[in-house]
Every structure is written in C-alpha cells, then in structure tokens.
Amino acid sequence: MKMIVTGLRKIESWVVTVAIIANVSGAFVLLALVAIMNVDVVSRNIFNAPFRGVVEVVIFSLALIVFLQLPDVVRTGRLTRSDGFLGLVRSRSPRLGGVLARILDGIACIFMCLIVWTVWPEFTESFESCHFFSQPDFGPAPTGNIWADFKTGLARCDYFGTPGILQAPWWPVRLVIAFGCAWAAILFFFKTALGDSQGPHHVTAQSSGEV
User: Fold this and answer.
1) What is the pLDDT of residues 173-191, one digit of tens each?
2) pTM of the predicted structure, to 2 decimals
3) How many degrees, rounded to 5, is the angle at CA 133 between CA 132 and CA 138?
4) Among 1, 13, 55, 85, which is most buried by a count of CB atoms within 10 Å?
5) Contact 16/4 with Cβ under 8 angstroms?
6) Is 102 exposed, middle or buried (0-12, 13-18, 19+ CB in 10 A)?
C-alpha cells in the first residue's frame, strides 16, 4: 500500500508541474491581452484607428486564460465554491471533514470528466474540418509540405469571428478547454485518492470579500 501511495505521489508531482506550466502560459496570454487592449485604446483615441477584431481577441483569450489556469487553481485549492458547511464539519470533526472533502473532490472529478467527454468530440470535429492530413471535399489536396498544408488548412477550419475583420479557428480553444478540464479531473482524482495536501484553502464568499 505504501508503495502505491509513493508511486501516486511521484505521478502527482509530474501532473502538478504541467499544471504550473499551464498556469504560466495563461499568464502570458493575459499579458498579451492587456497589451492588445492598451494598443486599441491608444490607437482609438490618438490616431482614430481602433484595433480591428479586439472583441474577438478578448473572447478567444479569455477562454484560453480560464482553462489554462484552471488546473493550477484546482491544485492550490482556490477554486471558488461554497464550503461553509464543510468548514463547520472540519472544525468539529477533522476526520469526517476530510472524508467529505474527498467525496466532493471525487464528484468534481466526475463532472470534469463529463465536460471533457462533451468537448472532445467538438474539438475533433472542428480540427478535422481543417483537413490538414486528408483530402477535403473542396480545394487542393495536401502537398506534403507541412507549413504550406497547415496554412491552407487554417483557411478551411471551422472558425469564429467576423469575416473581413478577424477570424480564428475554434479547435485551439476547444483543445485548451478539454486539456484544462482533463488536467483538473486528474488533480481532483489525486485529491480524492491521497487527500488535499494543500489543505482547506478554497475561496468562499466570506474570505474573498464577495457579498
């Protein structure tokens, strides 16, 4: 049993490392978004030339930021939830509180898996719409030149945005959503199996200053 726990702890350390890297990546996306919005403000007010597609960039970036940082939020126990009852149980019976916390983490793991199960087919469908490696119904066949085929395929992808202003393929966003929820599910699994090593640090309305 001890060997199993030790092995799970080692795997958990790798999972945590990936979660931290994803969190840092989300922070860089946030910095890029702030820079783009500042450029839009300056160009709009000084040069009367607003940045075209800023709304689409914000929508795209927010999805990336949220789901890239979701696993690390789960790791650190900062996922917002109402845990007043759990906190009361922990204060009176730490052992029972720990059991209830593991049950809640197990339920959260199941829900994250359901999200992945829902989003993954949408990702594969939007990715396959690009026909990077297969003959499309219309248009030229792949040439074998990876970069050229990639650029050609991007023009065929299922996209969001406004034609003529800014368009972006859907599949990167759906891939990030699937990744973030899958990694969050893995972290919830480790919390369920090994307990929450971070302790009860969940954000509540009282601790966060929310009303």
Assistant:
1) 999 999 999 999 999 999 9
2) 0.80
3) 65
4) 55
5) no
6) middle
